[in-house]
Structures are given as C-alpha cells and as structure tokens.
Specification:
globular
C-alpha cells in the first residue's frame, strides 16, 4: 500500500502547490487574535466555496448534530498544533452543548498522515458514533501516526481490523482524501488545523479562548467578530 499512497501524495501535492502559491490568504480580514495577541490569518469564503464545505459527506460530526453553530475543523493527524487543538475543541464541546463540530480529515503533511486518514475514513463509515473516541485515543499517544498506529487504536476499541482494512483500501478512500486536499488548497488553508465558521476560514489554531470568542460572536451576531 505504501508505494501507491506515496505516488498519490506526490500527485496531489503537485496539484496543490501551484494553487497555494498563486492565492495566499490576504492577512487577517477579521480581528481574530491568538492567545499571545498576534492576529490569526482569516478570510471570508465565497458562497460557492462555503457550499463545497457544507456539502462534504465523508466527515465526522461531533457535539450537537443539531447545534445552532457549526464549526468545521480541517486537520492532519501528524500536525502538532492539531494535537493541542483536539484537546481545546473537546473541552469547548463539553462546555457548549449547542455546538456542532465537523471533523474533516485533511492529510497533507506526509504519507503517514494519508495512511492514518484512510483508517479514519473507514471508521467514519462503519462506526461514526465511535469517531470522537478514536480521535481522543489516537492523540493520547506520542510519535508518528500512520496506518498501523491508527489500526492499532481501532483494534483496542474493539473494532474489526480486517473490516477497517477492507474499507480503507477501496478506490473511493484515496479519492475522498484527494478531494479534501484539493478543497483545502482552493480555500487557502495553508496551515493546520484550519477552521470554517460562519463563512470565514481561520488558518491555524487561535487557541481555546479565542475560538470560544469566535463561537460566541457567531451565536450573538451571526459573524466571527461582532
């Protein structure tokens, strides 16, 4: 599997790099700041771009599926900032019972990330109600997250590894990951994690408090900043 995954990774990186080079984010369009007070890159999406995000199907829904605010998170399993973000988002969800979180596997950093994401997509399809448990457990350990590591965690959870392997290796799986990568490139998500909320892309993790402020604003005035 590793060789064709490597070829696939090289192929979609070749597609993404030119578009990213031609269309960089235009700074901080809205006054969103990180924990250290530094402006966080963000920009408004077009109606078509937002429709593509909202139309994603191979994603994991957590929190309140009928929540009044929806937060999409694009992440790579091997992004160190995504590890911290996962803890922050989990805490935010526990405190906010009206928040819907949509996790979008965005495997753009390595072949290992793609392999891990292939297992994720299989879990999303066969046991969506277990995804947040898997997400928490996969980040509890240290080191590189690849297909074997992801499969080991799934097996610890009592999921059938043979069925996961079968589902992960269908032709549809790499096509989904490629489509996520292409979408992220088109949306100028040049860092992970990245978020989409109320029609705005936030590039990078602004920190728990800042993200909570954005969610509060979305609820209060329908915008990321009131």
């Amino acid at each position: 599997m590793a060789s064709w995954v490597a070829r696939l990774f090289a192929a979609w990186l070749a597609m993404l790099v030119p578009s990213a080079a031609l269309a960089q984010p235009g700074g901080a369009q809205f006054a969103i700041k990180g924990a250290d007070g530094t402006p966080v890159l963000n920009h408004r999406l077009s109606a078509d771009e937002l429709a593509r995000v909202e139309g994603l199907s191979a994603v994991a829904i957590a929190g309140n599926a009928k929540g009044d605010v929806t937060l999409h998170q694009f992440y790579d399993l091997n992004c160190p900032y995504c590890r911290q973000a996962s803890r922050d988002v989990a805490e935010i969800m526990r405190a906010d019972r009206n928040l819907k979180v949509v996790f979008v596997p965005y495997a753009v950093l390595s072949v290992a990330s793609i392999q891990g994401a292939m297992v994720e997509l299989a879990i999303i399809e066969m046991a969506p109600q277990r995804f947040t448990e898997f997400h928490r457990k996969i980040y509890a350990g240290r080191g590189l997250i690849d297909g074997n590591r992801a499969l080991s965690v799934a097996k610890e959870m009592g999921l059938d590894p043979n069925k996961i392997i079968e589902m992960a290796n269908t032709p549809r799986t790499p096509e989904i990951l490629k489509s996520h990568a292409v979408l992220g490139g088109d949306l100028k998500l040049i860092a992970t994690p990245a978020y989409v909320i109320k029609g705005v892309a936030i590039v990078g993790h602004p920190g728990k408090e800042s993200l909570q402020n954005v969610i509060r604003s979305a609820r209060r005035c329908g915008a990321v900043v009131c």
